[in-house]
């Protein structure tokens, strides 16, 4: 028996029909709201009980010392961790002086709905106090996707069957108590009371707090205001002390009467230390102005703006999949959070957990460029520009880091908030130089999809050149002229500090060529960076000579030099409880065996598919499939795409579902720490790059759609140079057809057109002339390769059969 | 110009003719006294000024948390660090109420002499107080080599030219103030006030302190007593408080009169926590008894016993080298400290710094088995038995560690005090599995040299079997049947986590064979350990199939698989200030290049010379010589031995001198943290295994002596199965002769004989029949291979020429 999903399968919302005290933290991540600047975890309005309170502001962080039992040269000495900003979500209710608490009295009804089109979290409650007084509560929370500094709560209490005296305490609270975190290397560093109070102020309906982080000295101004409506006699007063602004509303309600509070929050903060009073004043003014503007616009306008922004997003981002409603819901949930994490104005990073939790200390990793930006490039390209400009803004830090490491060019950090390396374990941090190539690749894809020449010529060129310089310095030529990158760590963290990691090498090759191309195209800009013909020639030569390790005997690429001759992992002797392996085996064992945490060669074949023949892809996929344990949530989506490409469509569906449901079903039991934004993005990737077969190697848009027969149709769009390309795929309905696909162009004049490849056939699709093509019948992919024993993904078709049977009442 | 050595060149002592305030810590290490149980740094009697106060008791330590920025499975969570035991060296002098302090008044004379035959540190001072009162002070300090629990100070003050009122405060002081340590990964963890007081007691002339370490709960009882002689009116009284016993002596001296205090110290401690009162009482009684016994014997007896013990040691351990008096002095100084560190009764470890400082946190590393025990095996074999029994006592911990690492057999710790792994950086700690083979090798050598069958059958067999089990588990067979050890770290710490480290593989091969041999010889004992014929067969098969990485093209062995194809280090672009490289380059750079911190292939050729042909040795030596930077003090002695073996006798002399003078000349600027006992032992190794050509592969004693023409003679002895084999080598005096060697046997009856090989010729030498043989003329070794630019050892012949010229007054 499969347990009933926590959230019913509904196409455009995630609904929690009751409150599960064991699922608090997971629900808080699931119901987190964010606009990429402000992130509010889905904590209950009244604060308690909670899994982990969370109010995050992009890049607002504290520093702490990184201490090592045995330190080493250039080990980072200071870490950065996201901290809890003043919490303005808090609204505490007292019913005849009894505090509303879901753990007391009788909870007749408790439901929360995350509306994926409205962009709101709505909660409805019916509660009877221990003394027997019933109330109904409705709260709607919103973090404005159009107003970066604004969040709002609409809070409404109704008396049910007897008169009730209400008191509502609506707080803006700094340095709230935080629970201690578990002893897991992946959990966050908790800093207690990271804020120091600078200023506090109250008016009648709200007030202001100004704080600074204790050590990093980052200032934050938080402003709160309330509009209260209710029966006669409702009162509203506000007090402020250094760490709290509290607005207290009292009302006497007769049965059926309602009191309503519309709470507005405004935040303004700096991501560098400000010592002077002047910037502090400016921050206070900025946060106040944001609240004033929102108040002037009114609640209904906030809601309407939110809806309009989401309508636009869904117009290009929505993926419709027929035949699997659970995945359909999940992919929308996933895309909603990708949008929340990434799709915002301005120069800012996209952390691995978005602003939904403090897992990974709120750090930005390669997840952004390698998993999130590919999705945003085709659904919300302006967000990619902002994220890459953030990398560009940190180029000086990356140059310094390269110098410190005694390398050349730029060495981007493996994990960071403010730009400097915060990785405390260099073999799986600093050595993962591929982050440089991942950034370069994101630049290339963005420029290819948007044609943004201004960006290409400016920050793009800088990023391409400085990342390429690192590869040239790190690499070495062998006696036969092959170019090697030794001692690096690739995506798979179950090996580290290896020679010639295949992924790193193919990505670095692209990086080197792209830098040379960019310099050739913009020689004036390149000259400013000191690039001359000798340097571009050296880049091209290194790229041409790049060694890709291959095992002739086994006929597969090696994940790194010598990988395929390492000992095999004893999967038969590994218990189910032993996963994830990193918590039960030392690196010593993991590193020297053929066990793969996450797609590495498979990711190389996804990102640089042009480097592999179809036969190589099939052999490589089969080989690594049997050795990949997916102890990382980053793996399934890449495996889905390659499974689809090599023709294992059922398996692709299995991995798609695993990626899509990662957080909605808490598959890795880590959702409570925050959402896995890369995995969420992976749902789109699995669908659009997997079943849709989208690729963009060398700036050419190509598709090779193909659906398994049990999924009747797939529809998606791609933002391409200002246009929206609509792709509609249908599966073959009988044994003789593999289905068909229709390409359509939207958003330009009638002459607007897109050049693309369909299963290798060049096509031009214009607004006036949609094109429909049959899907060629698949080449026989052979038997599906097995995953390691016990590690196969759930067979999706079995789940669907089961759900169908359940629907039929079997 | 070469600076005048700090200590004049004198054959049997180390004399410091004056006090250098910039050399305090170095002198404290140099003048440290120890009997392997108690270690007293050469702090001034009065305590101040000091570089680092130090009173150490073998294995007496405190625990602390090892915190990691990013932890991992089986990362050690608790460290151990040596702590300062109650300091009984302190004798403070007040001259007419003015404290004697070398920094005040006038220091007319200050000399310290470490007498290498007497085993005492003698200090003479003439000091004039700021008020103009002159005194003479003479103190002699001794840590008894025959009484493990006893140290003593003979302290004598004489009035010079006017009457003087003296007060002498002689302390036993717990938790004295410690300076903060520098920020260097090799420095120690300082714990402030690690002791808690349990008991204190005073009599008239002394008292007792009982303490416990705060966290590890190890108890220590310290007892002090004084015998005071002086003119009439001398008083003596003692007070005790929880952290101090103070005996105050007052005397009024007329000019020429003397007061003398003979202070006795007794220590008793436990190396495991004791909760009950009973063991504490026993410790107090033990320390008291030690002092009582020493007092009964009297000071002169202590001095005589010390002398007798050293006479016996020098009879077998002394190495006489003609032609280099500076090295002659150094090798005696070195051997004296090797004796002090290792040559004591009982089951106890030999830390890397002995008991001379808190560098490396007082940890025991592979230094013991690989560098110190080979010397002690031939000079003081009973000490080897004790050190190996200590490893055996920790076998249960090593078995647990192997299980924790999910390996088999035993995994001995890379660094420890009490037996558990304390390494906080696993790539250069836990991954250095060769420690297992190093221990096995030490067992083999000890058994071979002593014929101690009882040890072989008992602890020896246990150690051989459990260490071998690890290798079988770690190794893997390749498709062609080769046996590989992947992902380990060898001696060279500038590479880590490599496949098939040559040293590890040849040593593990020996380990596997030795375990099988031992099990065959003692099948009943082996059966108790569960060893059957299948297991011994598997060990022999793995040994026979052991892969030794070799580069056919370059004609050299590879330090590890692929090593010789790594990028070369840019020595030309490396500044002199960039050494040691680990403080100026990240591991990322070091690991992926052909730069060698310390002898690795060269050490393999020393330890397992039978595995290499003479031509291979010559080629390997030349190849690695050019890539070895000697950033570790462990390197020079091995290089000396192999340089001698392949015929570069001048170079061997250079490396000999570097090893011998490491601490006496503070060559690495680290002597202040404690002596490098392995490097000190290396002086003997360089002489006896280098110029003497001693080898013991497969239990066969062989010699291949050969001296450079500028070193006329070398004489040394070897303890061999209860006998003392005397070897006297003379250099060739003209171009036609390569010199000769005489072998003689001492210590048995007239029929006692030793079988040995002389330059490949089997000989039997009996007490009655010494054998003299010519040294065969050398094969032409070719040109001396260069060290990396700027890293060549000092050319010893130039130094000698310079010294000679200086002696001639040039």
**Quaternary assembly:** homodimer
Query: What is the total tally of β strands of chain A?
Result: 33
Largest sheet of chain A: 9 strands, antiparallel
Structural class of chain A: alpha+beta
CATH architecture of the domain at 31-293 in chain A: Distorted Sandwich
CATH superfamily of the domain at 31-293 in chain A: Glycoside hydrolase, family 65, N-terminal domain
Distance between the termini of chain A: 12 Å
What does this 3D model show about the protein?
Chains A, B: Residues 694-765 form the Glycoside hydrolase family 65 C-terminal domain. Chains A, B: Belongs to the glycosyl hydrolase 65 family. Chains A, B: Residues 795-810 have a biased composition (Basic and acidic residues). 2 copies of one chain form a homodimer. The model of chain A has no long low-confidence stretch (mean pLDDT 95). Among the domains of chain A are: 31-293, Glycoside hydrolase, family 65, N-terminal domain (Beta-galactosidase, Chain A, domain 5, Distorted Sandwich), CATH 2.70.98.40; 380-548, Glycosyltransferase, CATH 1.50.10.10; 713-774, no CATH class. Chain A has a 9-stranded antiparallel sheet. A 5-stranded antiparallel sheet of chain A has the order 8-7-13-18-17, with no helix packed on it. In chain A, strands 20-28-29-30-33 form a 5-stranded antiparallel sheet. The first copy, chain A, contains 19 helices and 33 strands. In chain A, helix 4 packs across helix 17 and helix 17 runs antiparallel to helix 18 (677-691). In chain A, a hairpin with a 5-residue loop joins strand 15 (206-213) and strand 16. With 810 residues, the first copy, chain A, is α+β, with helices and mostly antiparallel strands. The two termini of chain A are 12 Å apart.
């Amino acid at each position: 028996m499969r347990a009933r999903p926590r959230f019913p399968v509904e196409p455009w919302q995630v609904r929690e029909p009751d409150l599960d005290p064991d699922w608090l933290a997971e629900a808080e991540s699931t119901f987190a709201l964010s606009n990429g600047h402000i992130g509010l975890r889905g904590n209950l309005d009244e604060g308690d009980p909670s899994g982990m309170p969370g109010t995050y502001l992009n890049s607002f962080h504290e520093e702490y010392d990184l201490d090592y039992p045995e330190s080493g040269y250039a080990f980072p000495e200071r870490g950065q961790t996201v901290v809890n900003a003043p919490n303005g979500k808090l609204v505490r209710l007292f019913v005849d002086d009894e505090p509303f608490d879901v753990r007391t009295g009788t909870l007749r009804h408790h439901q929360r709905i995350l509306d994926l089109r409205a962009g709101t979290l709505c909660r409805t409650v019916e509660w009877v106090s221990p003394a027997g007084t019933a109330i109904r509560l409705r709260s709607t929370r919103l973090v404005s996707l159009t107003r970066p500094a604004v969040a709002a709560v609409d809070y409404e209490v109704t008396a049910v069957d007897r008169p009730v005296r209400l008191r509502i305490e609506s707080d803006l609270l700094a340095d709230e108590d935080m629970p201690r975190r578990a002893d897991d290397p992946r959990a966050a560093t908790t800093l207690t009371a990271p804020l120091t109070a600078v200023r506090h102020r109250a008016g009648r309906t709200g007030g202001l707090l100004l704080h600074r982080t204790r050590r990093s000295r980052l200032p934050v101004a938080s402003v709160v205001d309330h509009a209260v409506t209710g029966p006669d006699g409702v009162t509203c007063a506000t007090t402020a002390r250094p760490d709290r602004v509290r607005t207290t509303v009292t009302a006497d309600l007769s049965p059926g009467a309602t009191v309503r509070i519309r709470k507005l929050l405004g935040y303004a903060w700096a991501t560098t230390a400000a010592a002077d009073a002047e910037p502090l004043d400016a921050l206070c003014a900025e946060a106040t102005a944001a609240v004033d503007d929102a108040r002037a616009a009114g609640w209904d306008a906030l809601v309407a703006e939110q809806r309009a922004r989401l309508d636009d997003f869904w117009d290009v981002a929505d993926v419709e999949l027929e035949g699997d409603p659970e995945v359909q819901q999940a992919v929308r949930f996933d895309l909603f959070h990708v949008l929340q994490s990434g799709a915002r104005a301005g120069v800012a990073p996209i952390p691995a957990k978005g602003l939904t939790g403090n897992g990974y200390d709120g750090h930005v990793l390669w997840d952004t460029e390698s998993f999130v930006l590919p999705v945003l490039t085709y659904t919300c390209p302006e967000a990619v520009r902002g994220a890459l400009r953030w990398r560009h803004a940190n180029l000086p830090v990356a140059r310094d880091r390269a110098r410190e490491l005694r390398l050349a060019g730029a060495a981007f950090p493996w994990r960071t908030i403010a730009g400097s390396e915060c990785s405390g374990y260099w073999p799986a941090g600093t050595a993962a130089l591929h982050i440089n190539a991942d950034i370069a690749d994101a630049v290339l894809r963005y420029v290819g999809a948007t044609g943004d020449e201004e960006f290409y010529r400016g920050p793009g060129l800088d990023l391409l050149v400085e990342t390429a310089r690192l590869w040239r310095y790190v690499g070495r030529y062998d006696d036969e002229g092959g170019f090697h990158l030794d001692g690096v760590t690739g995506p798979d963290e179950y090996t580290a500090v290896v020679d010639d990691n295949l992924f790193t090498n193919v990505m670095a090759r692209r990086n080197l060529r792209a830098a040379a191309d960019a310099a050739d195209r913009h020689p004036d800009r390149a000259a400013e960076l000191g690039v001359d013909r000798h340097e571009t020639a050296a880049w091209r030569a290194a790229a041409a000579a790049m060694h890709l390790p291959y095992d002739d005997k086994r006929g597969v690429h090696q994940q790194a030099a010598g990988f395929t001759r390492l000992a095999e992992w004893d999967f038969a002797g590994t218990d189910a409880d032993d996963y994830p392996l990193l918590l039960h085996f030392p690196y010593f064992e993991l590193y020297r065996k053929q066990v793969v945490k996450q797609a590495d060669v498979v990711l190389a074949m996804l990102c640089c598919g042009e480097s592999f023949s179809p036969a190589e892809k099939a052999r490589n996929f089969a080989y690594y499939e049997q050795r990949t344990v997916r102890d990382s949530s980053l793996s399934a989506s890449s495996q889905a795409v390659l499974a689809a490409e090599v023709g294992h469509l059922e398996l692709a569906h299995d991995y798609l579902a695993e990626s899509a449901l990662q957080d909605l079903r808490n598959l890795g039991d880590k959702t409570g720490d925050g959402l896995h934004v890369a995995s969420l993005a992976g749902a789109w990737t699995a669908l659009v790059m997997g079943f849709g077969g989208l690729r963009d190697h060398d700036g050419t848009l190509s598709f090779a759609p193909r659906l398994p027969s049990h999924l009747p149709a797939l529809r998606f769009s791609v933002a391409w140079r200002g246009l929206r390309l609509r792709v509609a795929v249908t599966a073959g309905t009988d044994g003789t057809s593999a289905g068909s696909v229709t390409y359509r162009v939207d958003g330009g004049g009638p002459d607007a057109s897109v050049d693309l490849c369909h299963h290798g056939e060049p096509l031009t699709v214009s607004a006036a002339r949609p094109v429909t093509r049959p899907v060629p019948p698949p080449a026989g992919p052979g038997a599906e390769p097995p995953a390691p024993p016990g590690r196969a993904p759930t067979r999706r078709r079995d789940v669907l059969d089961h759900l169908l049977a359940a629907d039929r009442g079997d």
